[in-house]
Amino acid sequence: MNDHPSDKARVTFRITVPKNLTAVATGTLRRTTTKGDRTTYVYGTRGPIPTEVVQVAVGRYKKITATGPGGLPLRSYVPADQADKTRPYVDQIGKQIAWVQKMIGSAYPYETYGVLVPQGDYGAALETATLSTLGLSTPDDVPTMIHELVHQYFGNAVSLKSWDDMWISEGHASYYTLRYQEEKKITPLKESVERTYEYDQENRSETGPPGWLKDPGDVLGSTNAPGLLMLHGLNQQVGEATFQKIEKTFFERFRHKTASTQDYINVANEVSGRDFSAYIKSWIYGAKTPPYPTSAPTPTQTEGHKVRAVGPPSHT
Ligand SMILES: [Zn+2]
C-alpha cells in the first residue's frame, strides 16, 4: 500500500485475536474461524478502495446491523459499553444515505456502509472506506456523519489523481454537510457560507490555495473551505438542476477511478455548456480569495434554439 489517494486495490484482511475480542475492518466480514482461544476474522472489499483509507480495529465492540436504501447491508461497530448511547445516531445512517443519494442522484458506491466508533479517545473523524471512523456522543456529531458519508462518494469512490486535488474530496464533503444543515434547519446555508468565506479570506495567504498548499500537512484542513465555496458559487451560477447534473456526471464518470481538478472543470463545462475554467481555477489555484460566490446573471445568448456557450461569468 502506497498511502496515496490514487492507489486503489481490492483489500482482504485476516486478523487473529483472542476470542474475547472482536476484530473489525473495512469491507464485509467473509468468515470467522476459532481455534483454541483465538479467532480469525476475514474481511474483504468487493471493489477497489483507496488504500490510504483502510481501517482495522480490535477491541470489545458490539456490531449493529440494519438495512439501508435499496437493501444495502449496514453494519456499525460501537464500544460494547456505549451501545445504548450511540444507537440513536447509528439508527440514522440509512436515512442519511438516502439523503446523500437524493442530492447526488446516484446510488451509494460500495457494498456496505456503517461507522466504527473507536474505544477510547480517538479525537478525529476519518472517511475510512465503507466504515467511517468517528466519535458519536452528541447531536454535533451528526454533521460529521454526513461529511464522512459524502467522502465515500468523493474522496473514496472517486479518489484523487494527486494530493493537489484534495479539494474534490474535502470540498464536496463539506459542501453537502452545509446543505444538510440547511435542510434540517441546523444552520442556514447563507450563514455557513459567509463564515467560510471570511475564513478563506483570513487564511489563504498563509496556507496557499488548496491546489498549491504551502504545507502538505494542511491537506485535510485547508482544502475544505475553498472547495465548498467554489461548489456553492457554481451552484449559484448554473442553478440546482444543472449543478446536480454536473455532480452526478462527474461522480459516475470517475466512480472507482481517480479524478483531477481538470477532470472536474471538463465535466462542469461540458454539462453546463459554459466555460467555468477560469472561475474554478481562481478558487483552487488563486493566491487571493476570489469574489464572494453569488448568483451572477446567466450570460447566455439564445440564437434560435441554440444556447451559445460564453466565457466565465463575471462576479460582483
Ligand atoms: Zn473530510
UniProtKB/TrEMBL annotation:
GO terms for molecular function: aminopeptidase activity. Keywords: Aminopeptidase, Hydrolase, Protease. InterPro entries: Aminopeptidase_N-like_N_sf, Peptidase_M1_aminopeptidases, Peptidase_M1_dom, Peptidase_M4/M1_CTD_sf. Gene3D superfamilies: Neutral Protease Domain 2 (1.10.390.10), tricorn interacting facor f3 domain (2.60.40.1730). PANTHER family: PROTEASE M1 ZINC METALLOPROTEASE. It comes from Streptomyces celluloflavus. Residues 197-218, 290-316 are annotated as: Disordered. Residues 144-283 form the Peptidase M1 membrane alanine aminopeptidase domain. This is M1 family aminopeptidase. It holds the Pfam family Peptidase_M1.
